[in-house]
């Protein structure tokens, strides 16, 4: 199982590829992509990486609707 835990808007979210999330409004137009750079944890099969406080990874997403 592959997933990450990101922080945005003061909240934490567990995300996996293909997930759709409802989060606070972002200043990004629908259809545009955004990078979340506050990645707290990643799990990739049997490898777990924990940030202190964050990792140097990014999670890329596309805004569907506002």
How would you describe this structure in keywords?
66 residues, mainly beta, two-stranded antiparallel sheet
Describe this structure in words.
- The protein is mainly β and 66 residues long.
- Helix content is 0%, strand content 45%.
- It contains no helices and 6 strands.
- It has strands at residues 2-8, 11-15, 33-36, 39-44, 47-50, 59-62.
- It is globular, with a radius of gyration of 12 Å.
Figure out the total of helices: 0
Q: Specify the oligomeric state.
A: single chain
Note the gap between the termini.
29 Å
What overall form do the CA principal axes indicate?
globular
What is this structure, in a nutshell?
The protein has 66 residues and is mostly beta strands.
Topology of helices and strands:
Layout: E1 2-8, E2 11-15, E3 33-36, E4 39-44, E5 47-50, E6 59-62
Antiparallel strand pairs: 1-2, 1-4, 3-6, 4-5
